[in-house]
Each structure stands twice: as C-alpha cells, then as structure tokens.
Q: What sequence folds into this?
C-alpha cells in the first residue's frame, strides 16, 4: 500500500470516537502513517476575562482535555494492539477554535 504521512483524527472523547480511533490506529499501521489526535475547545468567556484565548474557562477545558488524552489513547490501543505491527506514532494536540 501507498505510504500516507499523517492521519488527522479529531475527537471529543465519546464512545463512537473511541471506536473510530481504533479503526484509525489499524489504518495508520497499514499505511505507515502517524496519527495526529486533536481536540478542539470552543472559545468561552467569563466576566472580566481578556483576551479571549487566555480566559480561565478555556484554560481549564484545555487542561482537562490534556488529562483525558492518555486514557483515550490507552483505551483505543488495548483492543487492537495485537493487530498492529509496531507502536503507532501519535501526536496529541488541543487547540481553541
């Protein structure tokens, strides 16, 4: 098969997203691709928070998403680990958008 450099996988950490992540892991293994796991945080504001990107609510949501990433990856890898030829390269990212 043709080599694909990267698979972008957006997630909101739901059960359907976890199932799709398992499929993406197997696909990335077959295509020799890395996976960029991305969670997008909706910009929020609270009273007196400026500038928008540095709001307390957004920073707390980003911190929570970063805490959830390792568990999401582990839960996705466990059932498909035996199908993979090696350890997948996964890059995690949380962005505001």
A:
């Amino acid at each position: 098969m043709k080599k694909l450099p990267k698979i972008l996988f957006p997630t909101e950490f739901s059960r359907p997203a976890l199932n799709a992540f398992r499929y993406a892991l197997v696909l990335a293994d077959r295509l020799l691709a890395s996976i960029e796991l991305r969670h997008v945080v909706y910009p929020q504001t609270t009273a007196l928070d400026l500038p928008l990107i540095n709001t307390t609510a957004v920073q707390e949501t980003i911190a929570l998403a970063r805490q959830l990433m390792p568990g999401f990856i582990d839960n996705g890898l466990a059932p498909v680990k035996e199908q993979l030829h090696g350890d997948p390269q996964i890059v995690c990212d949380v962005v505001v958008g």
